Amino acid sequence: MSKIIKIFFSPSQTTRKVVEQLASNFDGDGETYDLLNFNSEKEFEREDIAIVGMPVFAGRIPKSGRERLSKMKGENTKAIAIANYGNAHVTDALLELVTLLKENNFDVIAAATTVSHHSIFDGVAVGRPDSSDIEKINEFALKCLEKIESNESLTSQIPGNEEYTPYKQLPFEISCDEGICSFCYDCVSICPEKAIPDDDPISTNLNLCSRCTACINICPEDARSFSGDAFETKKPAFEKANSERKEPEFYL
Ligand SMILES: Cc1cc2nc3c(=O)[nH]c(=O)nc-3n(C[C@H](O)[C@H](O)[C@H](O)COP(=O)(O)O)c2cc1C
Ligand code: SF4
Ligand code: SF4
């Protein structure tokens, strides 16, 4: 019996939601690897089916997500790759994800770009994935099941450049409101870059920080947020430029 393996790096939880939606169409026992918490070597079996989701960060998959996923190897294990983005641009992220999975001995059978609420600019893609996205994800799952049944690999060309766009660190600040922080240290534990000092959750080392949003999302007090002139200036222009709805794309 195949095991359904859910793998995702999902600082603000929408990539997790997309992976779980797709996986809900498959029968069988499951295992979940949340790469914000799981950072170890792992080998999967030939019969397993991996559903792997990564958000798009400045046209790439996140560097930490990539490093953690790189420790996972298949045995010609079937995989479905999803690059989940905030209605702006996917650039090279899906190609990067598919290529990495193939290098790690996964048999990629299908891939998708899905659209979710933008985790930095919260006026973009509000409420997504919505019911229309979910319907399309479910239709895609049925096509994936047919491909698994007939043992077919991915044949579609994935858009993107083989020389991936360079990593980019965004100039936005992340601040913490000392007056409402309850010093639970959840942000310290979740931060994949160790950018929040163990003894001082009010600070953020912006040189280490990837702006991934995990600390903002996990904070029970809503104490952490994007801030600063660069962010406030960029927000309205970015939200206007990316207001037109984009649709998920599927590759079989
Ligand atoms: C650092 C960073 C960079 C991002 N870059 C892009 C991008 O290049 N294109 C895009 O459409 N969305 C971009 N986004 C938005 C995310 O891809 C999108 O909100 C995604 O749903 C986040 O996934 P998560 O909820 O699993 O964290 C970026 C978000 C972050 C935090
Ligand atoms: S401090 Fe930066 S890298 Fe760490 S969780 Fe927060 S946004 Fe992500
Ligand atoms: S998660 Fe929020 S409340 Fe908890 S230590 Fe961090 S900033 Fe403070």
Total strands: the figure is: 10
Strand content: 15-25%
- Within the largest sheet, what's the order of strands? 2-1-4-6-7-10
User: Which second-level CATH architecture of the largest domain applies?
Assistant: 3-Layer(aba) Sandwich
Name of the CATH superfamily of the largest domain: Flavodoxin domain
Euclidean distance between termini CA atoms: 24 Å
The number of distinct helices, counting runs of at least 4 residues, comes to 7
Query: What would the CATH topology of the largest domain be?
Result: Rossmann fold
Which molecules other than protein and nucleic acid are bound?
Answer: flavin mononucleotide, iron/sulfur cluster
Global morphology: globular
Rg, rounded, reads 18 Å
Q: What is the arithmetic mean of pLDDT?
A: 97
- Total domain modules: 2
